[in-house]
Amino acid sequence: xxxxxxxxxxxxxxxxxxxxxxxxxxxxxxxxxxxxxxxxxxxxxxxxxxxxxxxxxxxxxxxxxxxxxxxxxxxxxxxxxxxxxxxxxxxxxxxxxxxxxxxxxxxxxxxxxxxxxxxxxxxxxxxxxxxxxxxxxxxxxxxxxxxxxxxxxxxxxxxxxxxxxxxxxxxxxxxxxxxxxxxxxxxxxxxxxxxxxxxxxxxxxxxxxxxxxxxxxxxxxxxxxxxxxxxxxxxxxxxxxxxxxxxxxxxxxxxxxxxxxxxxxxxxxxxxxxxxxxxxxxxxxxxxxxxxxxxxxxxxxxxxxxxxxxxxxxx
Length: 315
Fold this sequence. Notes:
- The protein is an all-alpha fold.
- It has one domain.
- Helix content is 77%, strand content 0%.
- Helix 5 packs across helix 11 and helix 8 crosses helix 14.
- The two termini are 24 Å apart.
- Keywords: Membrane, Transmembrane, Transmembrane helix.
- This is Integral membrane protein.
């Protein structure tokens, strides 16, 4: 289970994660991180004259700490590792899915890219304020995923006898599944496929991380596209006319400026939010993308149900 990204299906791992959430050290650590973030951010904001660096530093530090704590104390590293590997391993299947959203997205975002008002807004997002905006887009996207993706788990409990037999193929339970399924009451089998609490959270995290990897890859693609497109066709005269200020060059590449990087980052973050909404609301996309992941989740739930039934039958 752990190797297949389901650590919370293992009682010991589940209890360790539950204990980590109840630990008083979590609250103490949170307070210390806020204090450290302020201690690092306030002087930086004072020296640079950019007040947004203080909250940006605190938010960044809290985000990194939450990620590290989740991967270690909360035992979520196998979940992230499996979901990322599963998504990257099926890039050939993901490319046709992503191209469903890319044409309309690029047309819409390219229109924004050649809009002077967008340049003026992005150029004023100096330092921490730009990253606060990016993190805000990421937070909204994460909340949207956490609200909508549980719908994908609604049918995961409806596994019949045939589905349970199929789920246990090529597993240590393959030799006993048919016997267990035949001798166990259907109502009991159905009850065993019910998952809740940390186990349901495990399934949800797999979906969220798999979708987040897709969004990140597409956002990086959009960022690279606008960086290259802008560096080739947007000279400094046009950029300065749009932002109504002088530009700052950052490289030997022609026309590559700090302002161009800021606009590209802003539009890439916006594109990530757009793609997140599209991915979980478009029925065709959901059916194609989630069919493979759902098959893996069904398999995990089925193996867990049969294993539990075997344990109950053992003397």
